[in-house]
Amino acid sequence: MTSGAGVLTDKSTFVGRARELSTVRKLLGTSRLLTLTGAGGVGKTRLALRAAELLRDTYQDGVEVVELARLETGDLLESEVAMALGLRDVRRDPMGMLVDHLSRKRMLLVLDNCEHLSAVCARLVDRLLRSAPRLQVLATSRQTLRVPGEQVLMVAPLSTPDSGPGRSHTVREIGRHDSVRLFVERAAGAVPGFRLNARNVAPVAQLVQRLEGIPLAIELAAVRLRSMPLERLARELEERFDVLVAKTPAALPRHQTMRATMEWSFRLCSAGERRLWARLGLFPSGADLETAEAVCSGDGIDRLDVLDHLTGLVDKSVLVRDGSRYRMPEALRAYGCEQLPPPEERRLRRRYVEHYRDLVTEQRIDRMVPEQVDRYLLLQRELPNIRVALEMCLSEPALAPMELEAAAAMWCFWLLAGSFAEGRYWLGRGLERVPEANRCRAMGLWADSLLALRQGQTAAATRGLEEFLAFARGEGDECLVAHGIRSSGVAAFFTGDARRGLALIRKSLAIHEARGDVDGIMFNLYVGAAYGSTEDPRQASEFGERLLTLCESRRALVFRAYAQLALGVAHWNLGERRRAEALLTAATEFTGGINDRWCLTQCLEVLAWLAGARGEHDRAAALLGAAHTMWQAVGTSPEWMSYHATWHERCTEQARAALGRSAFAAAFRQGSRLGPQRAAAYAVSGVPRERSPGRRGGRGSEPPVTTGAGGRRRPRSGTSPAG
């Protein structure tokens, strides 16, 4: 879960809100949609996340939190929600995919920070609630969604002491208020040993009253105790606010207070810190030191001073350090963006775009290098920032080729992440803006075709490949021609012409071998081993062995997993099941660990066949169910994949015949609820189950177990195959 109530981090304690938490629980007991509204910084996100944490066990299918502040455009809202639910792709009908996934689930979906996407959020929520009768939604927004049946809870600031005449300021009385408790706790973090006592109770009461009990404002003020005494802090706030609030007399009081607090905090920063605050507002998922130095230095910020400015902003609670990254609460990020002068913003946007264009081209995954895993994880972390860069390019016609170049360079990331639809979204928009025949458009067409094939859209893929090959041959570029021939081979496999597919793969492989192109050799060996396994399993096995050796020699761990998958399928077709299972288990364990959805989906599928071949039809059905959910998630089907189709159908029929339709359906359904990580763990370990799908009693009724700290095994609750 992410934090959003100001500067609270995941490790911060939650202060107060007992009444609001009780109200949230009651309203969710009678309504399927509850929206928490209120001014920025009032604590809507923190309250929603705390409520979700407390209510998690009451929902059979759990709680999912979707952070929308990082999403700049409503076009990707459905994809973002799908990704949070483990659905990595949504084919032609993203809403239909979400509806299908949620239709039978009893869960709570938390949509955080909806205000900038309120219209599209309203449409999404309305459709989901109509189609998924057991789904409930908890939203946070500065305005209501106006969806039928919506309940609204206005999140008020924390309680403050009464400032009326004659009121006493005893420590006991003042200390009961949540605003005071929050200030004291954060003040103790800034000044160790700080406590509420008879000497400071009056200025503390004055301060939280002046800050209207707004959590973000209180936290920004508390951290200032590092540089000034409490009495001066209270006096300075009072004087400064009188000036700032006078500038905007028409604003609502709480908006005035929050705005005044941010402006006061901004003015107390050094000139360099202010510039960096404004520039970091551009990064929805934060930035590490190297990125901040590359994008934000210059124009008044020396590169060598960036670390000092970052440290200063962390000390002032403007930034939160999360490992190696620095992120900013949404309200402060929005304020920072407002402080950028237009000429400076234009220069910054260009540096931002160029940085992320360079990042995605330098950190390509489709290279036989030892850093593959690091590159993949880096792109996962940076995806919200990359999206902003892609959108910036599309808003300026001159930068459209840069967007298309970046989106095409990420083709392997879109594939591994199972984000076919998002990849094609960015590629499609870029291709619309780059109609002229050039290398940039050609690579965009090629990447789009690869993803279209996995979506089963062979006609669109074929058109793109024809245009790509025409350009490559016209340029006399042998390397591009070889790529096009290989992709045409994949298309042939998808249309059922395995013989032609293998012939094209051999032709492409020969060109890459003659050129000494290791990356091209690798991709041809993979396609030949995986897709060719049903047509010629012996040659597929030879391709696979060569591929595995190549990946291991280059320490390309991501591609090694794909080599294990392809070789495992080849050994399955040769009847060498023990070797196949060893390879697929290793690939499953690895891909589950890095969240490679495309490889993991296929591994689960083939492991289901192996379970069925051993007569473990209940386990086969559960794995088929887990794979089914992920096939849907990545937007494709085993029936479309030539090396999966026949065995998938045979495994399904055998398991259904052995178990009976009812037991098969129950096991399949339990497997479909596992989710990627638990499915991978179940597939690898074969954890004993609380109730074995399709059976009653016996050893299969043992409670599920998981390995805890120090390797000890402990019971785990739940009824699904992996607990």
Largest sheet, if any?
5 strands, parallel
C-alpha geometry: globular
Helical proportion, percent range: 55-70%
Q: Going across the major beta sheet, what is the strand order?
A: 2-3-4-1-5
Poorly predicted runs are 1-11, 687-723
Looking at how many chains there are and whether they match, the oligomeric state comes to single chain
- In total, the number of strands is 10
Overall structural class, as computed from helix and strand content, comes to mainly alpha
Mean pLDDT: 86
- The CA-CA distance between the termini, in Å, is 22 Å
Strand content: 5-15%
Give a verbal description of the structure:
The longest helix is centred in the middle third of the chain and has 24 residues. The chain starts with 17 loop residues before the first helix and ends in an 8-residue tail after the last strand. The chain has 33 helices and ten strands. The strands form three sheets. It has a five-stranded parallel beta sheet, sandwiched between helices. It has a three-stranded antiparallel beta sheet with strand order 6-8-7. A two-stranded antiparallel ribbon has the order 9-10. It is globular, with a radius of gyration of 28 Å. The N terminus and C terminus are likely disordered. 61% of the residues lie in helices and 6% in strands. α5 links the parallel β3 and β4. It is mainly alpha-helical.
